[in-house]
Amino acid sequence: MWHDAVLVAGKDLRIEARSRVGLWQVVPFALLVLVLLAFAIGPDQASLRHAAPGIFWVALLFSTVLAIQRSVAVESGEGTRDGLRLSGIDPAGIFLGKAAAVGLQLLALQIVLWAGVTFLFDVQVHVVWLAVVASLLATVGLACAGVLYGALSAGLRVRDTLLPLLVLPVLAPILLAGSKAWQAALNGNASSGTQWLKILVPFALIYLVVGVVVYGPLQETA
Amino acid sequence: MSEQVTRPIRPRRPRWLDVVGVLGIAAMGFTVWLGLWVTPPDVVQGNLARLLYIHPAIATVALYWAGGVAAGGSLLYLWPRTRSFFWDRLAASAVEVGAVFSALTLVTGSLWGRPVWGVWWTWDARLTSTALLLLLEIGYLALRRVPADLDVRAKRCAVAALLVAVDVPIVHFSVDWWNTLHQGGTILDPGFDLHVHGIMLWTMGLSFVAFTLVFVWLLGMRYQVEVLQDAVGDQELDVSLSERWSEDAELVGVAGPAAHGSGDAP
């Protein structure tokens, strides 16, 4: 399973590295969301600084939807899914591999977003470990839940409109817990931030386990 | 020839479902009578306390009954040994009825929250997780409407229902995990110390029975509709296939090339 996961993740990442869709579309989109939300809130530095964690996570959430759509689109070519299914790769391995590929991209994206937030809103993270742990846990949750819902909507003609409707409410707890944890990390209030990590841990675990278990039956449907 | 294909579809509704429906309506009427006329107003909350006779019962149905049936049905469908469309339809019906009850939970809670808490809505953990449940259920219903083979749709929806069900324990434990404005559990309270007395307690108990009966009745009716929908879908396919065949037969008989020539002139 693990070996298969590495193979699938490697394949997805190689495709991304060659097509550069993530670099030229998803990353600029995430930065665009940052700027747009800043426009919506207005130029007041204090309120921008206050809203910065929320803006970061909203931008990350929207970009996750794009990354998942991309991850599904990679498999939607002629006979690609059948090829993957016939290759004898463990479905759990495919799930883990695709989730790992999406997760790594999201991590890279978060570094860019972090820089963007720091630069645009003049915020400073005081409890760095809290922000990093929150980001890592959230990435696992986002990638697993996202790939799962991506598989659910794969092969549908209405996939592009259906996926955000399905996946965004599911990711809402991550938005909530992530931005609260970041708020605490910015304010240097570690103890209140760790409270919110308690949401991120079960979320990541639940979707990891559910994904490993149900990805097989889901693949049969596509 | 379509007359030959379309047979009238006759639902076979089991007798017990009608009995449940009549009992449910009777219990509901009785609850309304007790709740609005017989029980006294509450010492503290006055007439607002009467929402106690519907809100907890509706929430219980939305969360545990609908959530339980949806999760159970989906699991049994995914399990190869028990795979049958019965479970798929049952789970789908439960999610749809559950969505109605979730919405009612939010509405009745909101009606009570406005005078007591001073706001229609607050970002409380239980309220937020219940709203999330409703959104998840709507997402499931959207997925359900996507045309697909019955088997494909069933599997896809079963997985989606399990993901919806993940939210159920979150709603349940939200009052314990977070310090919420919403009061703790009503029936499965860990330190069970009920402050509801006499006739009020009976009315509340009856409301649980009434809403549960109504839930079972709606679930059964919705299940019948689901069966009919699938049957109609099959028939429509038969009808359009036979129409298509007859068209082909006519076209071949009249003029093939002429029909092709006029096709690309906009």
Summarize this structure as a short list of keywords or feature phrases.
heterodimer; A: mainly alpha; 8 helices; globular; B: mainly alpha; Four Helix Bundle (Hemerythrin (Met), subunit A); 9 helices
Give the arrangement of secondary structure elements.
The complex is a heterodimer of chains A (222) and B (266).
Chain A: H1 2-19, H2 21-41, H3 45-74, H4 80-86, H5 91-121, H6 128-153, H7 159-187, H8 190-221
Chain B: H1 2-5, H2 15-38, H3 55-78, H4 85-117, H5 125-145, H6 150-165, H7 167-177, H8 198-253, H9 256-261
Helix pairs in contact in B: 2-8, 3-4, 3-6, 3-8, 4-5, 4-6, 4-8, 5-6, 5-7
Characterization of this structure:
Chain A has 222 residues and is mainly alpha-helical. Chain A has one domain. Chain A contains eight helices and no strands. Chain A has helices at 2-19, 21-41, 45-74, 80-86, 91-121, 128-153, 159-187, 190-221. In chain A, helix 3 (45-74) runs antiparallel to helix 5, helix 5 (91-121) packs antiparallel against helix 8 (190-221) and helix 6 (128-153) packs antiparallel against helix 7 (159-187). Chain A is globular. Chain B is mainly α. Chain B has a single domain, classed as Four Helix Bundle (Hemerythrin (Met), subunit A) (Up-down Bundle). In chain B, 73% of the residues lie in helices and 0% in strands. Chain B contains nine helices and no strands. Chain B has helices at residues 2-5, 15-38, 55-78, 85-117, 125-145, 150-165, 167-177, 198-253, 256-261. Residues 187-193 and 256-266 of chain B have low confidence and may be disordered.
